[in-house]
Model the fold of this input.
Amino acid sequence: MASASDPVGVFDSGIGGLSVLQEIRRLLPAEDLCYVADAAYMPYGEKPKALVRERALKIARFLVDEQHCKAIVVACNTATGIAVDLLRKQLDVPVIAIEPAIKPASELTKTGVVGVMATPGTLSGEKFGELHSRFSRDTKIISQPCPGLAKAIESGKLNSIRLRKLLTRFIKPLVDQNADVIVLGCTHYPFVRPLIRELAGQDVRIIDSGEAVARQLQRKLAASGLENGSGQEGHERFWCSSEPGACRGSIAPFWTRDVCTMALPA
Done:
């Protein structure tokens, strides 16, 4: 049986899920957090669906069975679209998913045009298709695949000419079609929000799902009697499927506290 003092597990294919982890830490300061960066298989959005399902289940099992996590947060839009139903069937703890923020975007738009930047895997997934169908009746939703963008952000070179060129190529078609809200449909993308805003223009709203996921986690924990009410500061532990030292170097710029990264068991 899970207890309130058990940690929360969070995973993504790389450092992108740290944008969600930041929101969880801000909203739930007492929770201990376990984060897995499956960097050896990054990005999920460009991998076969069967492989993503296999990796998601393996990591979730590690977090629940070996780290005794009381809830799992799938901090990856692609893994949500492909594997979240499987995880909910296989696991006995709450599984909190992430999805592109199309609903709030459709409520915010004044031009009636919303752009969605995401990996090819997310945009081709069934979950995204359902979202698109639900909200495209009253809003024009433009799907913009962004191959290579997550990997470029993962490199940590956030001021590079290559990254600026990539973003310009992905953002320009959205702005040209009068999108006034852009949804960041990959957890890596919030790390370059200032550059996206610069290229899109100040009149374009930029939104993501990190805060909404943190609030949903809080609701689930409270409903289950599992929210940590100790009042003590929570801690983080990190695992990585690639070389831990390199992974630690990738995580450190995006996390304000000391990072100790362990190798994910094979």
Q: What stands out?
A: The chain has eleven helices and ten strands. Residues 162 and 194 are 16 Å apart (CA to CA). The longest strand covers residues 113-118. The radius of gyration is 18 Å.
